[in-house]
Amino acid sequence: MLNQLQIIGHKSLNFFQRLGRGHILIFDVLKGIASLLPRPRLVVQQLYSVGVLSLIIIVVSGFFVGMVMGLQGYNTLVDFGAEESLGVMVALSLVRELGPVVTALLFAGRAGSALTAEIGLMKATEQLSAMEMMAVDPIRRVLSPRFVAGFISMPLLAAMFSAVGVLGGFFVGVGLLGVDDGAYWSQMQASVDIYDDIYNGVIKSLVFGFVVTWIAIFEGYDAIPTSEGVSRATTRTVVHSSLAVLGLDFILTALMFN
Amino acid sequence: MSTRITEIWVGLFVAGGIAALFMLAMKVSNLSTYKSDQGYDVTAYFEDISGLKVRSAVTMSGVRIGRVKEIVFDKNRLSARVTMEIEGEYDTLPDDSSASIYTAGLLGEKYIGLEPGAGSSDCEELSLDDSGEIKLDEKAGDCKPNNLKQGSEIKLTQDSLVLEKLIGQFISKFLSEDDKKEDTKK
Amino acid sequence: MDDKNTLVKVRNLKFARNDRMIFDGVDLDIQRGKVTVIMGPSGTGKTTLLRLIGRQIRPLEGTIEVDGEEVTTLSHRGLYELRKRMGMLFQNGALLTDLNVFDNIAYPLREHTNLSEELIRTLVIMKLQAVGLRGARDLMPAELSGGMARRVALARAIALDPMMIMYDEPFTGQDPISMGVLVRLIRNLNDALGLTSIVVSHDIEEASSIADYIYLLSGGKVVAHGTTEDLANSDSEWAQQFMNGKPDGPVPFHFQAAPYASDLNID
Ligand SMILES: Nc1ncnc2c1ncn2[C@@H]1O[C@H](COP(=O)(O)OP(=O)(O)OP(=O)(O)O)[C@@H](O)[C@H]1O
Ligand SMILES: [Mg+2]
User: Fold this and answer.
1) How much is the average pLDDT of B35-44?
2) For ligand 1, atom 31, which residue shows the shortest CA distance?
3) A95 contacts in B (CB within 8 Å)?
4) Of C96, C140, C94, C54, whose CA–CA distance to A126 is shortest?
């Protein structure tokens, strides 16, 4: 009984310590962004490994999700004779929800885990210590550029996901199932609002990008410097950032669309 | 990988992302139907606007000609003041047009529908001439009807139909009729 | 000892890891311009000592002065300025794996100086020549052997011409030829550039051949110190055991543990 209490106490202490370290870290990382201005190369390099390398999975998933939405939406709407509204349905679900959320989940799996593993291994092989001893702050040189790249990439990837998804829905709905071409676009334009839907969707993806990248670099930097520690940290990145994305999505949706 | 190729890829990535955002804005959303450059504002007072929102559509004959810009409660008149922005190209709406709040479909969005009035004008003036006859004075040339313009107010308004109120009225009407019947029976 | 000639002055150093005392009152003096060797059984905390001097970790108690500055209370900025004047060679090299050999050595130069690429190239090639790896400049760290990686790391540590270099076990993993080269290199760098060297090592022979002064650490304390001859002629059991590599003596071969028999459940 007492032992169990102790375990609970130990775990919650650990949790709060990690939370504290996470907040201190993000503060330092944000401070370090200023030092990147004379070295845009560092960010470009990371935009490549965080953004460009995630491109394929995002575009392909976006197209397939759009096609499935087209198929499912058509089957539901045709019963009400409302298949003209297919474009609205596909576009709204994509820009409001699926675009930001699915992109963030894929991003956590593709780029987040890679960031954690890379930083964790740099720690395990003492590369971060070596930088410190060379009087180079690893937070500024290693973490800040990765954070900025993640924060920039996420909304761009989510926009591509939604855009490609709308095309996927078009391909299935108009191309294969015979929904009217003009109706698909015009109904969509009449119902999708630039502010309510597009802008809020972009805000969501910015928030997700911030949180996922934050978790990824923190887990890497805080990892136990062994192969097992790094592998655990990588798993934690994917699990924690997925949960964070879904939870935040609920909160943001409640704030934005009510 | 050489820096150059990395940079080209990153350039493509950023351009692609911006292009996607642009497509969402122009092709998917209603941004292309915004023409807020040279619109003019008109106001109208409603007793009940429930359900109407800022940026709701303002239509005439079913065609969208503007949007709701602002909704405030006027504490002097104890009613809601709605400011609408009408697109600049629709500058020939008669100033005695009326505004009503409608619902798209049974449970859909609220919007404002304008109906054109007959049009009034200042250019016709009734006057008594020397012989005591009533005479219609026409100022030839620049005789135009008065139109809605920046700052005009639409006087004739009809409120939003609130489903609960409607049902409430319905029920109370039935009830009172029942009461009457019962009264007559007695 | 003369204070002016002391570059690193450690007093009453205490440090613990998971409630286990690693250092329990260590006093050390590292003389300027000398090669000081720190020896001790595996796991006594030699690497930890170097990290404490570079303030990658902070002690529980005690003071560490480097070049007249108190390391333990130094500001962030002051610390980074001091570190520019310290070189450190990590046990496994710790090269940046996403840069090739050339860029690894150029890294501190590019970070801390405004030298032209031309000049940086010249400097890097000179450092590579010094460690005998000029031909390996385009290799990636993954393509180097452990010994080569250590030498590249040495070239990187001396890139900024620091006032002192800390070597963490530089000799392990080197073949006899490059070992001899390294020993001479450390000595020559020390004398030619007027450096101060702290060498952590197990290799009695190599270490004693370059050491001006030796500290023996064990059980969280300095158990013996002196010049090579001092230690060889000392009648301290610690010194005798270590210098002669005897398994029996005051230095236990085993990590602290419960009695063997009780661990095997034999009573
Ligand atoms: N991160 C850590 N967490 C907990 N204990 C540690 C940690 N790092 C080192 N230790 C402990 O500190 C002690 C000293 O470690 P250190 O690496 O300084 O030894 P060392 O003298 O360099 O050994 P070697 O000669 O084998 O390199 C070891 O007993 C080790 O168990
Ligand atoms: Mg060690």
Assistant:
1) 78
2) C43
3) 24, 28-29
4) C94
